[in-house]
Amino acid sequence: MVAARTTSFFRRLRPAVAAALPVAVLGVGLGVGLAAAPAARADTAPMPAGTVPPSTPPVTPAPPTAPTDLTATRVTATSVTLTWTASTPGCCAIEAYVIEYAPPFTDAIPLTMVGNVTTATIRLSPTNEYRIRVSARDTTGHTSPWSNRIVVMTPATDTGPDTLPPTAPANLIVQDGTLSWTASTDDVGVTGYHVYRFDGWYTSTLVGIATSTTYPLPPPSTSGLRNLFYVRARDAAGNLSIATNTVDPYGPTPSPTPGPGCASFTLNGASCATD
After folding, report:
1. What is the domain class of 62-153 according to CATH?
2. pTM to 2 decimal places
3. Sequence ranges of the domains in the chain
């Protein structure tokens, strides 16, 4: 079993901020070299008849293929053990794998790198949801497409009678000023539902706790950002479920946004495949 060897941390830019940055700055931030195309010269002589044109520049070496079959084999309150099927090298040998384990409803995008392995254990935090995928990297720095993504929900604790989170509530909608959803199930029992507001970029706020599958729609935030609502189930041990889909009742066209759609919970913790 291999633990992560390096960790990186990125944050998404709000559209207004990204639009205000010069292109050169964005190019540096993304690691992209930007150069102006050379201007055509008026004094360039035409190629003499019979001259062989220059050969086509070589094609960029092929990157590795995407890893496949990403799976969580063990979930605890503070870690997840992952396995996947190795990528096939392109031009060059595979050197490492990059693991993205992004919590939803935040601007944080944490990454960690492991060696040329097909299993790894990474550190997480209790009662948090993570959306995880893997990419291969070869010795020249080429990266593969991402693997399938899985969603993991860590339990509140690894000890005690209940270490299994509830299933995710589903089908969150807003109708007649009320949020409603389909009930969760739990091996011991669901004690309530946490209702959250997400501003679309940075902050997720608990706005209320429901004891049934409905909750009065809160008024819109005055932050000037979005008003996306979602729900998590909670059990008596403090375990939280994976989130529902989100709804945007104050947006231009109120409609639900699909959630991860998870229904299978067989580990110590909860995990499911999404794509």
Report:
1. mainly beta
2. 0.75
3. 62-153, 170-261
pLDDT tens column, 22-66: 333 333 333 333 333 334 344 444 545 555 555 555 456 799 999
Pick the CATH number of 170-261 from 2.60.40.10, 1.10.150.130, 3.40.50.1100, 3.40.190.10: 2.60.40.10
SS3 for the chain is: CCECCEEEEEECCCHHHHHHCCHHHHHHHCCCCCCCCCCCCCCCCCCCCCCCCCCCCCCCCCCCCCCEEEEEEEECCCEEEEEEECCCCCCCCEEEEEEEEECCCCCEEEEEEECCCCEEEEECCCCCEEEEEEEEEECCCCECCCCCCEEEECCCCCCCCCCCCCCCCEEEEEECCEEEEECCCCCCCEEEEEEEEECCCCCEEEEEEECCCEEECCCCCCCCCCCEEEEEEEECCCCECCCCCEECCCCCCCCEECCCCCCCCCCCCEEEECC
